[in-house]
Amino acid sequence: MTELGRKQLLIGGEWRDAEGATTMPVVNPATEEVVAEVASASPGDVDAAVAAARAAMDGAWGQMSGRDRGRLLWKLGERMLERIDEISRLETLHNGKPIRESRHVEVPMAIECLQYFAGWADKLEGETIPVGARAHVYTRREPLGVVAAIVPWNFPLLLAMWKVAPALAAGNAVILKPASQTPLTALALGEAAIEVGFPPGTLNVVTGSGSTAGQAIVEHPGISKVAFTGDTSTGKGIMRTAAETLKQVTLELGGKSPNIVFADADLEAAVRGATVGIFYGKGEVCAAGSRLFVDRAVKDEFLDKLAARSKKMVAGDPMDPTTRLGAIASKSQLERVLDYVQVAKSQGATLLAGGERTDIGTGKGYFMQPTVFADVTPEMTIAREEIFGPVLATLEFGDVDDAIARANDSIYGLAAGIWTRDIAKAHYVASKLQAGTVWINTYNVYDVSVPFGGYKQSGFGREMGRLALDGYTQNKSVWVDLS
Asked: In CATH, what is the architecture of 9-253+459-479?
């Protein structure tokens, strides 16, 4: 094994090359250097992974008690914790996020997710239903079988764990396909699963392109469910393809989340919350507060404070523990973000901060200045389309009902933020916003016990919390004749 860990496919508990020994490069976005060549799976490799997962369901994994599954999940979390420094480094290496975020936020949250769902593994209970004296009727919650998790490049390990942990806790066998740009921590997860004793085929890691490996997964009749996080257009394609085999689908898709600042808010706290809402994770966050609505009465004061704070944020070496703003995840994503900046300028938005590519003194890396636009109107492109980068569109509103109407004027409905000292107003607005998560006087906070998911074209189904288990189980009714 090299310094960067495994680079082959994990299928049936064994590491193997892809068919034809095909590989794909992994690029460090902070240096633009290729840091690894990993296997690029074919449809034949996906077939092998499905066969291995099915064998696990028919064998040791399918026969294991919930309590023993929970013990294995807990041990996996412990093993990941022992390797946390190494895994955090891999996450930063292939994504460009600051090591501080990887080491102290993402990887610890992923481990916590494993251990949270470990506790659920022996608590998936059915119920008895009184239908009369001559029958005994009960229900069973059973695993779906072979499920696939297709995850994006922005939070590679954490978003994988949001799917893998509840799926395994419920007794399913899993095929994990990480994004082609960020496969390293998924492979480390697979390696750790072998180390702690998961039966062969329980967790398979298939690296490769979405167009080949991902498409083969969605089309495969042997897969009962696909859990996907990514952009809305891809999610729609997965739904269409999955319909051919009637496999279940959960989708956590794009967002254009509103962050609403009322005049009675603590403006200093709201400025901090607005910057965290859009610049944490370089803005590559599905729930990013990318539409900032500011009460007209305080707009000028607020935007002055926001622009000043944004200009102080400077990109740095992601491996430096003091860095707060890392590299955009890929060259193509940086180009996409810069294109949106040019469109915003051409449509009349006023640039208050940033707007340019930058570097950290090396002349290399996909770094972007934190960018804030004012004078944005609802029909502008940056107010309607998901940019997935550190670009904030600020708009104004007049009163509470105007704020609600403008916030809901979107095809998306993933998250929203509210800033006010009036708690009655806060709850009223939260009840009217079309979003799966609403934060009040905070932004971008998560807990594994709290369900997360979207309204409208931000998808359906919930991840984390007890509700996540509903997406990985099916109910069976059993009738016993007592006559």
From this structure: 3-Layer(aba) Sandwich (3.40)
